[in-house]
Amino acid sequence: xxxxxxxxxxxxxxxxxxxxxxxxxxxxxxxxxxxxxxxxxxxxxxxxxxxxxxxxxxxxxxxxxxxxxxxxxxxxxxxxxxxxxxxxxxxxxxxxxxxxxxxxxxxxxxxxxxxxxxxxxxxxxxxxxxxxxxxxxxxxxxxxxxxxxxxxxxxxxxxxxxxxxxxxxxxxxxxxxxxxxxxxxxxxxxxxxxxxxxxxxxxxxxxxxxxxxxxxxxxxxxxxxxxxxxxxxxxxxxxxxxxxxxxxxxxxxxxxxxxxxxxxxxxxxxxxxxxxxxxxxxxxxxxxxxxxxxxxxxxxxxxxxxxxxxxxxxxxxxxxxxxxxxxxxxxxxxxxxxxxxxxxxxxxx
Length: 349
What we know:
44% of the residues lie in helices and 12% in strands. The chain is built from 14 helices and 9 strands.
């Protein structure tokens, strides 16, 4: 039995490896280790969630951003980005459509739009929760103060997604301008968790300057932080960013890491991301077969979907869109899974 197999068996039993061990498992992945990880990940996921796939209605509420992250297509310096901001009535219309289709979680995602005051966001949240008390609301709107997070939680937000992007300070600094620090990002994540949010972190697979060691550090961070959700997807370059000439991340490695994360925390809510479906046409199906259990179809108005371009080639119509939810259900049924109408909260371990 080779070292990779031994490490997988150890991870399966203990939910923990050292950074060196994670690094070895990534650097030496092969078909045998991939298959074993996948089978264990699916087993653990089915023990907790059976064959259920949770869908979230993604609403991209603004592509205005005050930040200048080097990898992002809606960065402040991209003057070719056609900016927009949805009104509360626009967002509620998306929720109306999504609810009728069977969505019971709405994910409100945006750049760090400075016009989103606590008052405006709390008004929006109270309107959504009063209209749909059986639905969860996830926010993904970046770094804010602890006081702001508390107000949003008190207004009804249930979950918060904030990718940590890199658990290595030097690598983090190579992806972001100097005003953005890993220390601040981790502080935000800790604040969210302390307040009571179901909290999600995550990172890009194959981002510029990322080493195998960096990924191992990310896995160790996930192990210690114990997020309720974790979003990982392949890095995809955008033509209006400093990283335009870097190659995209590897879908196979991304799926391999999904399996590892499932073994680290068997009850985690783990999306098969749009980025994974962009890099490979069957990417989301491969993600589900590797241990993921969440898919986020797009509920945004068709008029703005192509404007929310975090990376080039993002799929904005088709099976990721809410209007084609039945196609998504069929594609999941073909691989043995069932899309369910459910809030899809994290299950207790």
